[in-house]
Design brief:
- Residues 1-56 form the Doublecortin domain.
- One of its GO terms (biological process) is regulation of mitotic cytokinesis.
- GO terms for molecular function: microtubule binding.
- It is a single chain.
- By secondary structure, the chain is α+β, with helices and mostly antiparallel strands.
- The protein has one domain.
- The protein is built from two helices and two strands; from the N terminus they run H-E-E-H.
- It has a two-stranded antiparallel ribbon with strand order 1-2.
- It is globular.
Length: 56
Amino acid sequence: LLEECTEKLNLNMAARRVFLADGTEALKPEDIPHEADIYVSTGEPFSDPFKKVKAQ
């Protein structure tokens, strides 16, 4: 899964972590529900991309 993410997203560093929209880390493909939004990281912890928008 991580190799596919690295290739599909054309990352310059390897994908290391995958998170669900609620910030839960998906440790194996079975942890990802069908049609779920995922967030890929090269090692950084989850950061809600909509946090600033929600705060306003």
